[in-house]
Amino acid sequence: MANTININETNWDGRRGSIHYAVTSDGTAVTDTTLVDISALSPAPGSVKIRSLDVVINGDFALIFEIDATTDQEVERFQGQTDVTYQFLRDYTDGPNVGRQASDKAAAGFTGDVLITTSGLANLDEFNLFMVFERDS
Amino acid sequence: MAAPTPVQSQEWNGRRGAATWRAAWGVGDTDITDSVVSDVSALSPLPGSNAVKLLAADVIVNGNFAVIIEWARVASGTVDTTTLNTRATWVSGDQFDTVWATRPGDITINGVVFTITSVDSATQITLASDPGDQTGVAYQVDEPLERFIGQSDATYQFHRDYTDAPSGGRIPAKTSSTRTGATGDLVLTTSGAANLDELLVRLTFEADR
User: Fold this and answer.
1) How much is the ipTM here?
2) CB contact, 8 Å: A87 with chain B?
């Protein structure tokens, strides 16, 4: 059993990046899947901040965004609903630091990778996310 | 039975353009496969590298079906298919690209769309469903760009703005300057569309170079 990844595209220009990731599920939970692998970006930043999230959820499940550390740092969570599709748009660029940062970049085991986890994902549920991020350090 | 005929138009001022596309399904109408929403080769003057970057997608879905938007034809040729292990084997044309394993999408074989499960080698791929036993049939692979799914008894409007991303928009990974056969066209496929469903699409784009 495995989810079908419909789209998986990362772009990075050294300062700003985007990730487009779309999944149709067979019911397999997504657990700490690496959405942005900091070390794979060239040139690699120390960490990134999220400028915006555009997330479409089809199904009664939660999609959780975290920054990787020994204790992962949750940065966002969206909850869908049965028989309804939602599009969530969140723009962080007007906030302090012009983006959503990790809460503790000095934490133990901090890698800066952006992870996603689902809760309650079921067969035929879908999500489609477009995230824009930027070098933070 | 046939797919509905879309009503569409395209505007272009030499630098920025927009394509509008809509269709309504009637009794017995089938899904649409690779309908050209934006015909890049018809733009005058042609954008550099025969490619545009997508600035925004505005998609209204009325019905429980999926809408898949792709860059057209990054690879084509012929394949043999087998029911055993749901595989397709390269025969001629472009060989399979291992990048498809990390940028997975669909492959159209003999007019039918299949999901690629894995690219096993440059000459063999595994499909998510049974393609049957076929010999020397045409295949085409497009580059996945966007996917939205609707719901019964509801209308959704999805709006996605790509302009804050690197390059100021979404660009195809493979254009005609880097890959023979790629057209740079934006094409649309539906999955699960049925009687009384409707779809309205507006794509805004810009010359990439």
Assistant:
1) 0.85
2) yes
Is the CB of residue B56 less than 8 Å away from at least one CB of chain A? no
The pair phi, psi for residue A40, each rounded to 5°, is -90, -10
How much is the pTM?
A: 0.85
CA distance A108 to chain B (A): 30
The tokens for A13 are 């220009």
CATH annotation of A4-135: 2.60.120
How many Cβ atoms from other residues are within 10 Å of residue B23's Cβ? 21
Alpha helices in chain B (DSSP H): none
Domain spans in chain B, listed from the N-terminal domain onward: 7-207
Question: Any idea which of A79-88, B15-24, B52-61 has the lowest mean pLDDT?
Answer: A79-88
Q: Which of B104, B151, B166 sits opposite A5 (nearest CB)?
A: B104
DSSP state of B5: P
Instruction: Note the pLDDT tens digit of each residue in B35-50.
Output: 999 998 889 998 877 7
Give the three-class secondary structure for B166: helix
A8/B103 touch (CB, cutoff 8 Å), yes or no: yes
For chain A, positions 8-47, list CB contacts with chain B under 8 A. 8-9, 11-13, 16-18, 20, 22
Angle B158-A59-B203 from CA coordinates, rounded to 5°: 15
Return d(Cα B152, Cα A20) in angstroms, integer. 26
Residue whose tokens read 């996917």: B147
What are the chain B neighbours of A94 within 8 Å (beta carbons)?
A: none
